[in-house]
């Protein structure tokens, strides 16, 4: 297979079939053997008004981030697509409707904004779709046909994807959509055969394990089911709603239940109630919903009740930017709530980790009897990757509750002060193990006790328990490590993909750079992080938040200041922005 690294965008107005077209590109190229990372941008309004853009990075090698430049733009709406012109690479290919249904003035025209070296392919999308299928609704498929022909993609890849998507709607609907695609493919062959740029010629199926196209949200839902989820309680909120939608379809057949609650407070209350009885349960929300859950999350900390909470971060504060990405809930996840309420916080960096971290979260919650917060973000939740099939072993999903032994019957102390802080946990109905669970400060038996000595002792116990979880949490992972580095880049969440690519590019330029991925946000592995920092002249921590929240949390481990790259644009940090910072440090010398 030839080496390929191409970014394709589809841009249109909501209702043009933009998102569907981008999804079909992802599926077709994945089935053809390429690695794919896709992400969609769309307006926050429920009714479809505004610009939609799909981004598909397609490569012959693994992909960890989106590119800054676009090589191919498929425009379904000239006026909306003008916004993408500044992002086009030199010599980019542009497919547009050469005979749009409505008159376009010069100030609305896409072509009028393009660089002179752009390669233009005007195809009458609407006319061809109408002639082929009796309606212009299939114009997005006509555009895909032209794209496939010019770029040398086997049309059968798209026909298979179209068949999979539409065959359940009947043969007539399927035939209409196939005809719309073929109309664009045939037109391009007739008009542009001498200008073909067969970027994907020689496409061959990957000979490795079959890969499947999954979003982060889908991976989270699958991970929860594979972990033995029994009850999901939630309230719709962007970008976490697709998790509930997926579970509503998939969980009942596995004997579980999905309950839409009246709000986020009720959702976390139900999760704590179900978990208290021993049932694996969870909820998913975003920043505004997480804020409402805070009091009951700290109740779970004090009463030592397991809970799994997925916080899908979005732009904030308050209602903020519902359909934009950000990493600004770290402070809230680690510190949010009254009192010293330490809990476990973990953060996946890609779609595969969305699955494995969700599976792991249930065992962490059970063993350490505490809420576990899984931090994702809009980009991670909604992006798609083609990954190997995701599975969990029996050991990764087994029950790890620490139960009392029979000798404790009649003498049971629910909150016994053990060396590691983990007290044997009895479930309701276990004979001889009656106990009280309370949000008040309590004695080892669970009776309210407000004495200074007891509060000191029980606070130490709860924090000791959380710190003991480090042995079960993921160690920071170093990339391109050696004994010394000019620059060390530390990152978390979806931003790590851009860090990995920027670091790789910097090393190809001859710079001595390494990266550290942190997925255990709290508690965190101080010794490992400090050891990495000591090897680096400069520490750079890029984050999608204004304050540098991870830098605030771990910056004290460095002997000097840490350098921050804080962006809140609503979009993922591009690798180029991180690379520029790395080069500045290298050119400027050591700290």
Overall tally of domains: 4
Main beta sheet: strand number and arrangement?
Answer: 8 strands, mixed
- Major sheet strand order: 6-5-4-1-3-2-14-7
How far apart lie the N and C ends? Answer: 44 Å
Beta-strand residue fraction: 15-25%
Kindly report the CATH topology of the largest domain.
Pyruvate-ferredoxin Oxidoreductase, domain 3
Broad structural category:
alpha/beta
State mean pLDDT (0 to 100 scale). 94
Question: Total number of helical segments?
Answer: 19
Gist?
With 591 residues, this protein is an alpha/beta fold. It is built from 19 helices and 20 strands. Helix 1 (18-31) crosses helix 5 (155-166), helix 3 crosses helix 4 and helix 7 (216-226) runs parallel beside helix 12 (351-368).
Features:
eight-stranded mixed sheet, 19 helices, globular, alpha/beta, Pyruvate-ferredoxin Oxidoreductase, domain 3, single chain, Rossmann fold, 591 residues, 4 domains, seven-stranded mixed sheet
What do these coordinates show?
The chain is of the alpha/beta class. The chain has 4 domains: 5-195, Pyruvate-ferredoxin Oxidoreductase, domain 3, CATH 3.40.920.10; 213-390, Thiamin diphosphate (ThDP)-binding fold, Pyr/PP domains (Rossmann fold, 3-Layer(aba) Sandwich), CATH 3.40.50; 402-473, no CATH class; 477-588, Rossmann fold (3-Layer(aba) Sandwich), CATH 3.40.50.920. 37% of the residues lie in helices and 19% in strands. It has 19 helices and 20 strands. The chain has helices at residues 18-31, 78-81, 125-133, 139-151, 155-166, 171-192, 216-226, 241-250, 264-276, 287-303, 330-335, 351-368, 378-382, 394-397, 452-468, 495-508, 526-534, 549-554, 575-588; strands spanning 5-13, 35-41, 51-59, 70-75, 88-97, 119-123, 212-215, 231-234, 257-260, 281-285, 307-313, 344-346, 371-377, 384-387, 477-479, 485-491, 513-517, 520-522, 536-543, 563-566. It has an 8-stranded mixed sheet. Strand 4 (70-75), helix 2 and strand 5 form a beta-alpha-beta unit. Helix 3 packs across helix 6. The two termini are 44 Å apart.
